[in-house]
Each structure stands twice: as C-alpha cells, then as structure tokens.
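Pair request: fold both.
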Amino acid sequence: MGRVLAVALVALAAVALYATTAPAGQQAVTPKQFTALQKRVKTLESNQKQIIEALGVVIHCGFDQGAVATTKAPQYHVTATGETTDFYVLTTSDKDCADFINTPALRNLLKRVH
C-alpha cells in the first residue's frame, strides 16, 4: 500500500510540474494589437527607407570624393610641406552635395543628434 501511495504521489507531482511549466497554447491576437503592429511595421519600413537614402547620400557626397589634409596649429589651415596633419576634411566638387550639406534642416538635425 505504501508503494502505491508513493507512486501516486510521484505521478501527481509530475503532472503538477508539467502543468506549471508546459508552454501555453496559441493566443489570439486582437484586431487592436494587429493594427498597432501594422502601424509599427509601416513606421519601421519608412525609417529603413530614409536610412538607406541617407547612407546613399553620405557615400556619394563623403566617401566618393577627396580629402584635404589640415592642421589646427597655430590656426586652422591646409597643411604645407613638412607640417603635421591633425585631421582630414572631406571635399566635394558636386554642387548638389554642397547644397545638401549646407541646408539648415541638416544642420538642425545634426545639432539635435549631437
């Protein structure tokens, strides 16, 4: 009788453990949740498109052009022969890139980010 009771208690404990740790069944998504997810996906897709466009502009205007060696001592200027270069300044001869870089909207955006 003691063995039967012990087996029954172990079986009951196993069922209780399974019931508490088993994954839940499928949960229904409400229309409100689905609409919210659709809105988030649309926003993320829009952000992705804007980021890709911005990277295209950066690559075209920044990395596809040249760079000028400059120094800040004793004042900011292009380095002469024998001077140490402090940093390089990206240059462009594309008027559209220069206009884009100098737009007030871009400067305001950069101020907010920085």
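--- second member of the pair ---
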Amino acid sequence: MLLVNAGVVFIALDIIAAYFDLFGSMARTGVMFLISGIFLIVFGVYLEKKRRGLMRRMEQTVSPEAQ
C-alpha cells in the first residue's frame, strides 16, 4: 500500500509541475503579446503623425498652384 500511495503522490507532483511549466510558458507568451501590442500601438501613432505631416506638405504644395 505504501508504494501505491507513493505512486499517487509522484503522479500528483508531476501534474503540479506540468501546471507550473504551462503557467511559465503562458506568462512568457502573454508578455510577448503585450510587448508586441504596445509596439504596434506606438508604431501606429508614429505612422499616423508621419502621414498627417505628409498630407499637410502635399496640401501646401498644391494650394499655391490652385490659386
């Protein structure tokens, strides 16, 4: 009976270790998801500012010719 109980304990420890391993990999994946999301937001804001500046310059070059 001692060996059966020891086997159950080792199986339970294996399941708990697998859970912590999964949690660690999910944490790494979540951090990468957050970092890439922040990067995309910052990059989008940067590109929008560049686009607005380009549109402003295009309007300035077109308006003297239109008059």
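Observation on the second member. The mean pLDDT is 88.
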